[in-house]
């Protein structure tokens, strides 16, 4: 276990102990002064949080010269738009943590017919506070294996929550919901997910997968272009989308990011729309 993992586990434990003590105070008279039963665990949790943030700041940064981009097939078909792309900045999501140095987010954004509103609902400052997942064209879209691979790991069972596409909902995600998930660990941040072993020390991560949509299990072999799951809205997300990245190990807690390029697409920049045909995944 790495030092960072050990500190993160201690941090989570401190919060659990603090929560249990606060709840217990409502039902029983705990022995000792209040600073022992509540203040001390709170201070410990705070300092452990600072230690976690300090360790996370440098965690996962690539060592030496970056690897050459690994070419893989696109994980989707249809028309999509890129967000938080490594074509614009690295690390694309602001941190190297969880092997996501070169991660990209993509949202389905089909062309609207003349006179029709965009198929993907826009961000609103106040109202509606949230939208149901079915309002977003990405939700339920098939996810495809980007190469011939072995399934290194899967995780399922987390709910697909409603969108966080208003300012109040986004604030709730950033201040409360996201913080809780960070304390609980990477699997809660990624939500339901699939990790593929592409060989030669390269692993592909598909995050925020729809609950109950997994079509593969750990140990399965898949072919490029094979459906493996569907886009969902689980984990730390604002709306249904795919978070995709390559990394150099099967455990996001310890892996480092690997640059990628999608065959026939490249690496789309922020706000860039791209279209993938149904025959691209089988190429190469």
TrEMBL record:
Segments crossing the lipid bilayer: 12-28, 34-55
Keywords in alphabetical order: Membrane, Transmembrane, Transmembrane helix
Organism: Streptomyces cyaneofuscatus
Designated name of the protein: M23 family metallopeptidase
PANTHER family assigned: MUREIN HYDROLASE ACTIVATOR ENVC (PTHR21666:SF270), PEPTIDASE-RELATED (PTHR21666)
Keyword Cell cycle: no
Residue span, M23ase beta-sheet core domain: 185-248
Ranges in coiled-coil conformation: none
């Amino acid at each position: 276990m790495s030092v960072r993992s050990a500190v993160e586990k201690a941090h989570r434990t401190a919060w659990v102990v603090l929560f249990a003590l606060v709840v217990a105070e409502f039902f029983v008279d705990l022995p000792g002064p209040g600073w022992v039963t509540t203040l001390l665990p709170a201070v410990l949790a705070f300092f452990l949080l600072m230690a976690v943030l300090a360790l996370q700041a440098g965690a996962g940064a690539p060592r030496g010269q970056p690897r050459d981009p690994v070419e893989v097939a696109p994980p989707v078909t249809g028309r999509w738009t890129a967000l938080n792309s490594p074509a614009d900045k690295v690390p694309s999501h602001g941190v190297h943590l969880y092997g996501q140095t070169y991660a990209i987010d993509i949202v389905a954004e089909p062309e609207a017919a003349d006179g029709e509103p965009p198929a993907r609902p826009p961000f609103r400052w106040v109202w509606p506070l949230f939208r149901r997942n079915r309002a977003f064209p990405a939700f339920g879209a098939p996810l495809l294996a980007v190469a011939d691979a072995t399934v290194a790991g899967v995780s399922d069972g987390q709910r697909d929550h409603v969108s966080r596409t208003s300012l109040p909902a986004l604030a709730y995600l950033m201040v409360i919901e996201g913080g809780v998930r960070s304390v609980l660990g990477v699997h809660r941040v990624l939500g339901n997910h699939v990790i593929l072993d592409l060989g030669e020390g390269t692993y592909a991560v598909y995050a925020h997968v729809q609950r109950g949509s997994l079509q593969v299990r750990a140990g399965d072999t898949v072919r490029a272009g094979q459906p493996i799951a569907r886009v969902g809205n689980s984990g730390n997300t604002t709306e249904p989308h795919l978070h995709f990245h390559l990394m150099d190990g099967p455990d996001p807690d310890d892996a480092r990011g690997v640059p990628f390029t999608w065959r026939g697409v490249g690496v789309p920049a922020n706000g860039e729309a791209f279209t993938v045909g149904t025959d691209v995944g089988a190429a190469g």
